[in-house]
Amino acid sequence: METPAINDLSICIATENGTGSASANNVLFKAIFKMGIPCSSKNMFPSNIQGLPTWYQVRACADGYMARKDAIDVMVMFNDATAAKDIHRVRDGGLILYDDSTPLSPNLKRDGVQYMGVPANNIVQKLIPASPLRGKQKNMLYVGALAFLFGIDMETIKEVLQDTFGKKPAVIESNLVCIESGFNHMKEKGYTQNIGRLAPIPNGNKGKIITEGNTACALGAIYGGATVISWYPITPSSSLAEALEYYMPRLRKNNGKTTYAIVQAEDEIAAAGMVVGAGWAGARAMTSTSGPGVSLMNETIGLAYFAEIPGVFFIIQRGGPSTGLPTRTQQADILLMYYASHGDTRHILLIPYDMKSCFDLARRSFDFAERFQTPVFVAMDLDLGMNLWSSEPLKLDKEPFDRGKLLTAEQLEQWEKQGKKFRRYFDADGDGIPYRTIPGNPHRHASYFTRGSGHDADARYSEDEKDYKETLDRLRKKFETARKHVPKPIIEMNDGVKTGVICFGSSYEPVREARDRLRASGLKTNHLLLRALPLTEESKEFLAAHDVVYLVEQNRDAQMASIFKEEWPELAAKIVSVLIYDGLPVTTLEVFRQITQHQASARKGAEKWQGKRLTASI
Amino acid sequence: MAGEKVNRVNLTEKDYEGAHSTMCRGCGHDAISASVMRAFFESSIDPRKVIKLSGIGCSSKTPAYFLSQSFGFNAVHGRMSAVATGANLANHSLVPIGVSGDGDTSAIGLGNFCHMMRRNVNITYIVENNGVYGLTKGQFSATADKGSVMKGGKINEIPAIDICELAIILGATYVARSFSGDRKQLAPLIQGALAHGGSAILDVVSPCVTFNNHEGSTKSLKYVKGHLDPIHDVDFIPHYENIEIDYEKGTDQQVELHDGSRIILHKLADDYDPTSRMQALQTIHAAVAEGKVLTGLIYYDRNRLGFAEEQDLCETPLAELGQDVLQPPAELLEQINAGFMK
Asked: A185: closest CA among A117, A126, A129?
């Protein structure tokens, strides 16, 4: 018999989508959070409205690790369609909770795990009068059953129901009845288990918030002064725009009038067009989309790059290519963003890795866009954007907006008094960034003609080879200036350690835990958390300081590694890619496994090489 | 300069000029640019309050050839309507004029064009319609009439898109057709469009003298001139001119525009009511059936709000709002955080 672990538990809940399981899962997750136990959740859902399998994985972990866990302690098997596979997802010695309203089919029996039944369907038939909602309530039964088995207090659950359905007492009541029935059923049957216990941690989550990255980004955009938002619905980015639609009216009214415009565009091409039009006219403009949207926006992004118009593009990456896996996570659009559009183009990417950085980078993205007069991507992924993460509260750093080299009529007048002339695309400061005026500026010399075709330093149409090359070279110089200003990576260095790990985005949590496990097994590593492109000098120094650097990314083709190798080919051999691209949130084990496997084969290779050298000596 | 006519904002016609045109000699587009300059001058609109937008193509080059004191934006092919929508939201105090071609509007940009009209975005949108792709040297566009002949002899077998019909169906609120060579009609129609607060679509037939001016083309100078069918003569009276026009009942009709300006339509043949959507569509169809180029103010709806107005935006343009207005207080973020703790 195992000794039950305290506050170290992973539960996977298998249901059909559209059956109300999202509410039940939410209650379970929030109850664990309210107990003060560090916890995370991953929603693995289909691109469908109703009837396809969905899994929700909750992890409670006193040590504070948030990554998805491979080993599933408890499987809530509430979907017949996936049951045959689900019984094998749970670890040896784990527990399967199923609806025993009908007897378990013999082919769903497996050795080495405990089975417990809760007749959810039967109970709900008796409890709830026939109504369309009845089917949706049966999921609350497993919440009650789990609460009994693992020690979630019923008072805590009541508080969560109150928080969630505060204004609907009837809904609270009907849910509570179902949860209590599940609880009581397990109690009456006398079920016990030794897998784990959940025990409240006083003030354990004090001051912590739970939210999704898309919401944090939306709030960041609002605090960053976004005014024109144009978007086209696409998973997994829609909830970012919808969060804007929710919060903008609450946060951004001025004497009853709106200080923003949100347009649901007819397609991503139009969404990008509106962003560019608004950015050109001086607004802080943005859109949100995912890979297929970026593909459509490419031409307009190139226009903004070449004509030097600010705009922010929030990209919530999902599984590609093509329609791919719209509801699964990926980091496979790095190169699509970095080199978006035809011709020689390069773009700034800001890459959040937790809720706080979603807020901060979203807020600052508008400063970068205006400072560098160019499209800026906030490179998110679905895991970060759509899953609930527990985090430090969002915090507003009171910095002034950086509107970049924007000339008002008064400043222009001053310039002219000093004998200077406004030239839209002239590199006056030697940093590649020209000065800009915006439409409506009444100065007689403020206006210019913007175009995506060839132009000279005075914004005149030009096909002259010298003008063309000068423009391209200045744009590259501007990018080099940006390199000095984008957020630097966060680096952890330890003396004498010669193995490094680089990661970004939602890989941060699994990498953090994997590094702790590697250290426990004898391999110490240093760490670099990437927060932006272009790459900065710190990344080069990090490569140079190590014998081997593992670069963890969620795509097949090592896209981020290719950017490192392009920048510093002389250091390319040090990079070993850890690639995880099954569309599911990265697990700690997979990072750990790939690194240890490489370490083992490197050792073998070194031995082989030693042998070769001996035999090959002439 | 002595004797030179000055308008209400103290500018001469010269102040409305632009860079030297690079269109072919005799191109209809230059004549349209001249009408645009006349309209802005006559309406006394300060060019520094105007934004000029376009897509890609011959027509889209022309905003560089008028109003050089205005900001201009020659965007990507077919996307001017979206770019203009964004610019209009960013600064609703500016007067937007868009110039596009039949390829830019009715082929590559058709979708975005339709949705701009659905939203009734405030813009004077001129389609310089010649039925042919000029910059790529003479392919049929989507407004080429069925049966019309290409320069090399190829016959177009696909029915044309009628921009005015489309505009009426999709929600544009000021729809006119004119001819590049008819400045007397075109300039007041543009003035009316500038005074209007929503999507004003002007389909201006503008013969391409290089690639579509031959026998068999229904957009040639000769063909168009021979088939013009104006429904009325048009006069524009700006809002600041408080004169009472002595118009004749039954033959003249007065249309009051968004900013208080008026258009007087002098009836030429049958009664025509531009506020009737059904009559407008029927009249277009009848003209097409007879092979006529119907011109005039075909449709007008003054009741619908423009898109920016519908957003209930604050008076200061969004582009000019500062951090004091745009950044909510930190206390509100604290409240949101507190909500996330439950």
From this structure: A117
pLDDT band, residue B151 (cuts 50/70/90): confident
How much is the ipTM here?
0.96
**Closest CA of chain B from A33, distance in Å:** 9
CA distance A502 to A561: 10
Distance (Å, whole) CA A513 – CA A69 = 10
CB atoms within 10 A of CB A88: 9
What is the C-alpha separation between A289 and B56, in angstroms, rounded? 26
Distance CA(B323)–CA(A259), nearest Å, equals 11
pLDDT digits (tens, 9 = 90+) for B187-203: 999 999 999 999 999 99
**CA B232 centroid distance within chain:** 19
Residue pLDDT, tens place only, A358-373: 999 999 999 999 999 9
B228, B222 in Cβ contact below 8 A? no
Do A278 and B87 make contact, defined as CB atoms within 8 angstroms? yes
A446 to B48: CB separation less than 8 angstroms, yes or no: yes
> For the segment A498-522, what is each residue's pLDDT rounded down to a tens digit?
999 999 999 999 999 999 999 999 9
Of A208, A274, A451, the CB nearest to B86: A274
Buried b / exposed e over A564-573, threshold 16 CB at 10 Å, is bbebbeebee
Tokens of residue A423, six digits? 């030239």
The alpha carbon of A368 is separated from its chain's Cα centroid by a whole number of angstroms, namely 20
**Residue A529: strand pairing partners:** A490, A503
Which structure tokens are listed for B114? 């339709």
What CA–CA distance (Å, rounded) separates B270 from B273? 10
B308 and A CB contact within 8 Å: yes
Are A182 and A120 in contact by the 8 Å Cβ rule? The answer is yes
Q: What is the pTM of this model?
A: 0.96
Contact indicator for A235, A327 with CB cutoff of 8 Å: yes
Q: What is the Cα–Cα distance from A482 to A432, expressed in whole angstroms?
A: 10
Residue A227: its chain B contacts at CB < 8 A? Answer: 90, 318-319, 321, 326
DSSP letter string over B81-136?
HHHHHHHHHH-TTSEEEEEEEHHIIIIITHHHHHHHHHHT-SEEEEEEE-SEETTT
> In this predicted model, what pLDDT tens digit does every residue of A573-596 receive, in sequence order?
999 999 999 999 999 999 999 999
The confidence score (pLDDT) of residue B2 equals 55
What single-letter DSSP state applies at residue B180?
T
Of chain B, the end-to-end C-alpha distance in Å amounts to 74
Residue closest to A263 by CA, chosen among B90, B44, B303, B315: B90
* B328 inside 8 A of chain A by CB: yes
Cα–Cα–Cα angle for A102, A104, A106, nearest 5°? 140
Cβ-Cβ contacts under 8 Å between A and B: the total is 218
Instruction: Select from A522, A551, A523 the least CA-distant residue to A539.
Output: A551
Quickly tell me which residue has 């501007």 as its tokens: A478
3-state secondary structure of B143: coil
Closest Cα to residue A521, out of A588, A461, A472, A466?
A588
Q: Which residues are registered as beta bridge partners of A16?
A: A53
What whole-number distance in Å separates Cα of residue B142 and Cα of residue B103?
7
- Type of residue at B152: G
CA distances from B211 to A265, B21, B55, B134, B147 (A): 36, 18, 20, 7, 17
